[in-house]
Amino acid sequence: MRLHILNPSDMPMPPSHDALIINPHCQVTTDYVGHGRNKIVIADDFYQYPEQALQLALELPYTDQFEIVGNFPGVRASVKVDTQPLFAKISELWGTTLCPFFDPQPAVFQGITNKNYRLNIGQRQPHIDQDITAMVYLNPANTCVGGTGLYRHRPTELERVAIAPDQQIRDLADRLELSEEFLNSAEGYENFQNSMVFNPLFANRQNTYINGGNEYWELLKLIEMKPNRLIIFDGRCFHSQYITPDQYTEAFRVNQIVYLSQQTKG
Fold first, then answer.
1. Which of 41, 81, 109, 125 meets the CB 3.0–4.6 Å disulfide criterion with 203?
2. Rounded to whole angstroms, how far apart are CA atoms 182 and 107?
3. pLDDT at 7 over 70
């Protein structure tokens, strides 16, 4: 599967070996969101040659196989390139050393379209990732809309779920008079999250992303999608694609996705 985001006459120049060279003069801003002051780092004009980065992404073969995309509502592709400079730059911007989950770690790209697509319950509410999430928006300006939303769970007032139960989670479990079994094993903690936070009843009833929120989810911040913009945030914060039904019905939304860990490997 190939992605379509431009008219053939508007296609950028073919990519070169330096398609993913980072702009040393990218414009960096930091924001803090919610009661927990959850950090967001934004780097605009991130790649030195964004047209080549986009072309690299467009030339790849994409798949929607569950083993590759999981519950992501789209398609993914990867290419073997040297990603260490990217990880080093993201670590520098975040302020601590971040490690990839695999070594070597390829560059991963993904695409979403609203054309003839049915979202499942999990895709109609926010989700969390493994640890630190970074992505580079690659669409050109004429197909660059929406963004990424960060959310608060209204019933529990949670803004994130820690990798292991923290004091906030334990206080919540005490208020709900839940058994310690929910927090004493990985399986129990996952069941806690699925029942208390990601309950199917909390999802949008219509075939739409959570976007501006609902009675269960409050939008804290919309990180606007802009061409060649890198965003970094704590993936344990509740987040979702912000895409309205009229967007990306013809063109794909394309970005590079990076999942990193703050935990050093033993």
1. 125
2. 36
3. no
